[in-house]
Specification:
alpha/beta, Rossmann fold, two-stranded parallel ribbon, 9 helices, single chain, four-stranded parallel sheet
């Protein structure tokens, strides 16, 4: 059974919330766990003195997704699509029902929420969308990497069609980040070298800088930029075999 990341209450989502609150943004936080959401909102209000609204919703369900979609249509200045989760098992070991939920959260939710937010941004001629993908988008690792590759391609396409330099859409492609992501998926990451781990606050800071610069794809940290550039030089077949071996 899949275990989803808790939206704005932990990891990259919480890092964005802290960063935006520090910059004076009013926030609308989305997550499945309402009690945890309320605790996070209380901490942000107390520390930064900004308004924080709560929107409990499960983006893996039609009801939850429609609720957040409606709020985006009301108007937001910055949308961060960061909900996501991983599977412990390999592609052929994962129930198809869980794979379909992954596609709903990683792809359908990103599509619908982006399209709900962009018209208002274009009317006001300002705004931004950050869709959290992954460096996994550039490697082959089952439905997870395939869905993140879609997020990158979709974000670049949406950015090209936004029609204004003041309305920005960007895909964020971090590597390994110290969050609850891997623990919630019961993944053993003990063998991952320490140099590959990033801090969520650093990822959020880099993303905001790259969005302001008008980048359509942001890869936090020089080490991951190097990894991706080297990966492009490796024959596709060999890269696929290496990726599959790492996954096992």
């Amino acid at each position: 059974m899949y275990k989803r990341q808790p939206g704005a209450t932990a990891g990259i989502g919480a890092a964005f919330a802290r960063r935006l609150a520090a910059d004076g943004f009013s926030l609308v936080l989305v997550a499945r766990d309402e009690s945890r959401l309320a605790e996070e909102a209380g901490r942000l209000r107390l520390r930064y003195g900004v308004p924080v609204d709560l929107l409990p919703a499960d983006l893996g369900t039609e009801e939850g997704l429609a609720r957040v979609e409606a709020r985006c249509r009301e108007g937001v200045d910055l949308l961060v699509n960061n909900a996501g989760f991983g599977h412990k098992g390999a592609f052929l070991q994962t129930p198809v029902e869980d794979e379909l939920v992954m596609l709903k959260v990683h792809c359908e939710a990103v599509l619908r929420l982006t399209l709900a937010a962009l018209p208002g941004m274009r009317e006001r001629d300002r705004g931004g969308v950050i869709n959290v993908a992954s460096v996994a988008a550039y490697f082959t690792r089952g439905t997870y990497s395939a869905s993140k590759a879609w997020v990158v391609n979709f974000s670049e396409s949406a950015a090209a069609e936004a029609g204004s330099a003041r309305v920005k859409v960007m895909a964020l492609c971090p590597g390994f980040v110290r969050t609850e992501f891997h623990q919630r998926a019961s993944m053993d990451m003990s063998g991952t070298p320490g140099i590959l781990w990033l801090k969520a606050d650093d990822v959020a800071r880099t993303a905001m800088r790259d969005l302001a610069l008008g980048k359509r794809v942001s890869v936090p940290s020089l080490r991951y930029k190097v990894i991706l550039n080297v990966g492009r030089l490796v024959p596709h077949g060999l890269a696929s075999r290496i990726s599959a071996r790492i996954g096992r």
